[in-house]
Write a structure and sequence with these properties.
The protein is of the alpha/beta class and 336 residues long. The chain has eleven helices and 13 strands. The longest helix is centred in the N-terminal third of the chain and has 21 residues, at 93-113. Bound molecules: nicotinamide-adenine-dinucleotide (NAD) and uridine-5'-diphosphate-4-deoxy-4-fluoro-alpha-D-galactose.
C-alpha cells in the first residue's frame, strides 16, 4: 500500500517510515522541513535499504497535495504534519490554527477530490486537558488548556465530521501519550530545535553535556515522589501502532479514537534515575516551581487499541532510555 506520510521527516514520522517499510508499505514523505531535516529521511533510507520519495511542500498548498496523491497513486494517508510546541502556541495562536487546522482541511479536501478515504491521524493525550479520570479512556471528558491542544481537538472533530458525512471515509485517530526513545540502531532519534520543551530530550542533552542541569518543574505534586507522572511510550512502539492502524482501517467505519500509551506511569525522578543507569552518566537537576498548565499525573488505558488493532506497547522505560542514549551519544548535535 502506498502511504502518504505528512510530516514524515519529523521525529515520529521518520520512525514510522522505518516501520512502514519493514511491513511492506511504501511511504511517500511530504514535509516542509519547518521542524525537521531531510537528513532524517536519508537515515530511514539507509536503515531500510530503499529509496523513499520525498516531496518538499506545505500542507496548506492544495495543488501540491492533489499532485502527490495522484502522481504516487496514494491509497492512505498518515497525517503527522503539525506545529506542536505548547508554549509557542500561546504566543502565536494564529500560526498554530493556520498551520494545523488549515493544513488538515486542505488535506481532507484533497483526499476527497482524489477519492483517498483512509486516514491515520496524530492526536495527543493533550485532549484530556486536566485529566480528571486516570487512567484516561477514550470516553474521558475532553478539554484543552492551550491553542496547540485546541488545534488537536478541532482536527479530531473535523475528521470525525468528514467520516460522518461520507460513509466511505475511515480514520484512526491515535492519541499519543508521551513519545520518547529512538530507533535501536542509534542512527535516528529526536532532534528538537533550540531548547527542548520535553523531558526526555532535555535529560539526554544534560547527560551528553550540551546543558548543565535539568530543571524539574515541581516536587510538591500529589504523587509518591512529588514529581509529575506520565505515560512514556517508545517511539518504535508508536510507529508499530501506525502499521496496525493502517491494517485495521479497511475493517473500520467512521472515525475511531484510540489511546496509544503503555498504561504505566513513570515519575520525572524515576525517568532521571533510569536514564542515569542506562547512560552511566550523572544527570544533575534542581527543583524549580511548577510549569504553568502542567498536571500532576496522566497515563493511558490502552485496552481499546489492543482490542481494535491487536497492538500493545512492548518496550519498557529502561529500553526507552538505552535507545535514546545510543542516539544522543552517537550524535550529540542531532542531525546537524
Ligand atoms: P515533529 O515536529 O518532529 O514533526 C512534525 C513534522 O511536520 C516536521 O517534520 C515538520 O517539518 C512538519 N510540518 C509541520 N507543519 C507542516 C506544514 N504546514 N507542511 C508540511 N510539513 C509540516 O513532531 P513529532 O513529535 O514527530 O510529532 C508528530 C505529530 O504527533 C504532530 O502532529 C504532533 O502534534 C503529534 N504529537 C506529538 C507528541 C510528542 O510529544 N512528540 C505527542 C502527541 C502528539
Ligand atoms: N518536565 C520537567 N522539566 C523539563 C521538562 C519537563 O520537569 O525540562 C516535567 C513536566 O513538568 C512534566 C513531565 O516532565 O511533569 C513531562 O513533561 P513533557 O513536557 O515532556 O510532557 P507533557 O506531558 O507536559 O506534554 C507532552 C507534549 C504535549 C502532549 C502531551 C501528551 O509536550 O504536546 O505530552 O500527553 F500533548
Amino acid at each position: 500500500m502506498r502511504v502518504l506520510v505528512t510530516g514524515g521527516a519529523g521525529y515520529i514520522g521518520s520512525h514510522t517510515c522505518v516501520a512502514l517499510c519493514e511491513h511492506d508499505f511504501e511511504p511517500i514523505v511530504f514535509d516542509n522541513f519547518c521542524n525537521s531535516s531531510p537528513e532524517a529521511v536519508r537515515r530511514v533510507e539507509s536503515i531500510v535499504g530503499r529509496r523513499i520519495p520525498v516531496i518538499e511542500g506545505d500542507m496548506r498548498d492544495r495543488e501540491a497535495l492533489l499532485d502527490v496523491l495522484e502522481r504516487h497513486a496514494i491509497e492512505a494517508v498518515v497525517h503527522f504534519a503539525a506545529l506542536k510546541a505548547v508554549g509557542e502556541s500561546l504566543s502565536c495562536p494564529l500560526e498554530y490554527f493556520d498551520n494545523n487546522i488549515t493544513g488538515t482541511i486542505t488535506l481532507l479536501q484533497a483526499m476527497q477530490a482524489k477519492a483517498v478515504h483512509r486516514l491515520v491521524f496524530s492526536s495527543s493525550a493533550t485532549v484530556y486537558g486536566g485529566a480528571e479520570t486516570i487512567p484516561a479512556t477514550e470516553d474521558s471528558p475532553l478539554s484543552v488548556t492551550n491553542p496547540y491542544g485546541r488545534t488537536k481537538l478541532v482536527m479530531e472533530q473535523l475528521i470525525a465530521d468528514v467520516c460522518a458525512a461520507d460513509a466511505g471515509f475511515a480514520a484512526m485517530i491515535l492519541r499519543y501519550f508521551n513519545p520518547v526513545g529512538a530507533h535501536p540502531s542509534g542512527q535516528m532519534g529526536e532532534d528538537p530545535k533550540g531548547i527542548p520543551n520535553n523531558l526526555m530530550p532535555y535529560i539526554a542533552q544534560v547527560a551528553v553535556g550540551r546543558r548543565d542541569k535539568l530543571r524539574i518543574f515541581g516536587n510538591d505534586w500529589p504523587t509518591p515522589d512529588g514529581t509529575g507522572i506520565r505515560d512514556f511510550i517508545h517511539v518504535m512502539d508508536l510507529a508499530h501502532a501506525h502499521v496496525a492502524a493502517l491494517r485495521g482501517l479497511p475493517r473500520q467505519a467512521g472515525a475511531t479514537m484510540l489511546n496509544i500509551g503503555t498504561g504505566k506511569g513513570t515519575s520525572v525522578l524515576e525517568l532521571v534515575r533510569a536514564f542515569e543507569m542506562a547512560s552511566g552518566r550523572n544527570v544533575p537537576f534542581e527543583f524549580v516551581g511548577r510549569r504553568p498548565g502542567d498536571i500532576a499525573e496522566l497515563w493511558a488505558d490502552p485496552s481499546l487499541a489492543q482490542e481494535v488493532l491487536g497492538w500493545r506497547a512492548e518496550y519498557d522505560i529502561e529500553r526507552m532510555c538505552e535507545d535514546t542514549w545510543r542516539w544522543q551519544s552517537a550524535y550529540p548535535d542531532g542531525y546537524a
